[in-house]
Amino acid sequence: MIRAAAARLHGHARRTPLLSSPFLDQIAGRRVWVKPECLQHTGSFKYRGGYSAVSALKDTVRARGVLAFSSGNHAQGVALAAAQHGVPSVIIMPSDAPAMKIANTRALGAEVVLYDRAGESREELGDALQTERNLTLIRPYDEPQVMAGQGTTGLEIAEDAKAMGITQADVLVCCGGGGLTSGIALALEAEASGLRARPCEPEGFDDTARSLASGWIQRNARTSGGLCDAIVTPQPGEITFPIMQRLCGPGLVVTEDEVLQAMALAWGRLKLVAEPGGAVALAAALFLANAIDGDDVIVTISGGNVDAAVFSRALADYGDLD
Amino acid sequence: MIRAAAARLHGHARRTPLLSSPFLDQIAGRRVWVKPECLQHTGSFKYRGGYSAVSALKDTVRARGVLAFSSGNHAQGVALAAAQHGVPSVIIMPSDAPAMKIANTRALGAEVVLYDRAGESREELGDALQTERNLTLIRPYDEPQVMAGQGTTGLEIAEDAKAMGITQADVLVCCGGGGLTSGIALALEAEASGLRARPCEPEGFDDTARSLASGWIQRNARTSGGLCDAIVTPQPGEITFPIMQRLCGPGLVVTEDEVLQAMALAWGRLKLVAEPGGAVALAAALFLANAIDGDDVIVTISGGNVDAAVFSRALADYGDLD
Predict the structure, then answer these.
(1) A315 contacts in B (CB within 8 Å)?
(2) Cα Rg for chain B, rounded, in angstroms?
(3) Contacts of B311 in chain A (CB under 8 A)
């Protein structure tokens, strides 16, 4: 499914490279290779999964339109994919999502429906809209075609690592519901068995790390708030978790201060814009070096959709790199 | 020479892509293709010219070391190229260069000598150091092997434009002394005759635009100050100007406010960090649309080495994209 998704995405998704900086290598104490999915269309890897899912629908089903709920990146990915297929999209977004993500989703042609993350159930809202308008729901992570699309990131990592002679390395993945992590893990299992995916999360939202450690799905105490809005989910997915359990190494958990510092270093050393949720894996590579094995580490920057105020905070706190 | 430089740079310089965003296309009223040389090693295209020049030296000459004067980007390019060849480098930098550029140049292994841009002649300082230590001077733009290295950017633009079916377009180039502009112009002449290079400069430092308009080399009234430190030169080069005169379209001149706005848009829409001097061409594409012809425009972002204070100013003024 991942290879088939890659074929559908060919000529649509950007083929992102692996970037590096001697300054980051020095901090991490090993070579750090960065997969910049912030450069992907819509500013995050979510375009891969959105396009994969929309393109996999039967024409007659797709023509009725698609529905998604998302804090922002999946929203934009599905909205653009729907627009590129000439079909309508309705996106249910939390009212506290970054303003830029809401505005971008609308600009990409979607109808946006806002809900209160603390008081309303997005699932109930989605069910109602699905029934009313006969739309197809594109789930953000617990959906095989979405996971297959995200997994194309892993095929590219495997190909580039092989070309560079990297046969053993941890691949750190920014993890919310686990769509990207499980997709990459499956791709690596098939194409680069010496590479091991590891989910990375922020403190307070480390449901996947705790689930992997305990062997059972664990929930987060909070389901909103925190800096890393893009990867705040209540718990790992029911489809994604068993895959992560079978294939992934232990989870890595970073502080919000480490995330802000990683954002500033991506800005200064890679000239890339990372959003907080997109910088957790880089933060883990840089600041949890003792929890990682090997001479090389591969890191996803999963997205770059961040408001100016948050980005300026990272620069104010950590932007002075001299 | 450009093709030979490309062969030497193969496996060393990053092959940067052409990026785009529907949001930028909408502002410009045409398709905007961005060549992100901020993603190049050392954060600017200058690595190409530095590596080209250092790698072209005879082994015995190179072993004695190289010398460069630069406001920062050429400095870093030459410093890294020298380090990669295992030879010493001495870099003469203005004392008002961005702190990050000075720090990075030192971190890349160079010996940095600071001078006062208003009161001292960097050429005299360079002559003295050259004589004393028998170093080879790598000029920042009026040096054929440097121009050839920068021209490899143009070979890549020509190749990608051809693959996308773009046969007619202006190629907007951030222009200081004209090394990148003349190098790209020569590459396009050979490989993509329907693409035309056009130098872009900030107000107050539009020596190249005025020189092209008048037919004679014109100087800037000021030789320091302004936001766009990377492309502040007294006048176009003696080798670069006749090439630009023969091959380039008219120069484009943008305001510093337009530059800050372009930086914020590169941040928000491309997830790229552009320095002020590296954003002038994007500013011209977005805000001088009437001075540009065709359905497509190709734009260099020539570098991303900017201090946090300046970047935060761009975000504070123009970072709210909703």
Answers:
(1) 308, 311-312, 315
(2) 18
(3) 267, 315, 319
What pLDDT, on a 0 to 100 scale, did the predictor assign at position B322? Answer: 66
Looking only at the bridges linking them, the beta strands covering B136-137 and B111-115 are unpaired
* Burial of A128: CB neighbours in 10 Å, binned 0-12, 13-18, 19+: exposed
CB nearest B271 (choices: A23, A39, A99): A39
Residue B130 one-letter amino acid: Q
In sequence order, what DSSP letters do the residues of A187-251 get, joined into one string?
A: HHHHH-TTEEEEEEEETT--HHHHHHHHSS----S-SS-SS-GGG--SS--TTHHHHHHHH----
Question: pLDDT of B190-239, one tens digit each?
Answer: 999 999 999 999 999 999 999 999 999 999 998 778 899 888 888 999 99
Q: Note whether B108 contacts A22, CB cutoff 8 Å.
A: yes
Token code pair at residue B66? 């190289």
Q: B270 vs A14: CB contact, 8 Å cut-off? A: no
- The answer for residues whose C-beta is within 8 angstroms of residue B276's C-beta and 6 or more apart is B202, B227, B228, B229, B230, B256, B259, B260, B263, B306, B310
What's the whole-number average pLDDT of chain A? 95
- Identity (one letter) of the amino acid at A150? Q
Asked if the Cβ–Cβ distance from A319 to B312 is below 8 Å, we say yes
Residue A322 pLDDT > 70, yes or no? no
Q: Measured between CB atoms, which of B19, B99, B272 is closest to A322?
A: B99
* Sequence-distant (≥ 6) Cβ neighbours of residue B9 within 8 angstroms: B48, B51, B52, B55, B149, B152
Which residue of chain A is at minimal alpha-carbon distance from B278? A271
**Chain A residues close to B24, C-beta within 8 Å:** none
Buried b / exposed e across B106-125, counting CB within 10 Å, b at 16+?
bbbbbbbeebebeeeebeeb
Which residues of chain B make contact with A23, given a CB cutoff of 8 A? Answer: 104, 107
ipTM value = 0.95
Contact assignment for B321 to A264 by CB distance below 8 Å? no
* Domains present along chain B, CATH in parentheses: 2-45+144-318 (3.40.50.1100), 46-137 (3.40.50.1100)
Contacts A–B by Cβ distance under 8 A: 82
| Residue B308 to residue A322, Cβ atoms within 8 A | no
Strands of B89-94's sheet, edge to edge?
B111-115, B89-94, B66-69, B136-137
- Per DSSP, the residues of B248-306 read ----EEE-HHHHHHHHHHIIIII-B---GGGSHHHHHHHH-GGG--SSEEEEEE-B---
Q: Are A83 and A60 spatial neighbours (Cβ–Cβ below 8 Å)?
A: no
Chain A nearest-CA distance from B56, in A, is 24
Residues of A in contact with B156 (CB under 8 A): none
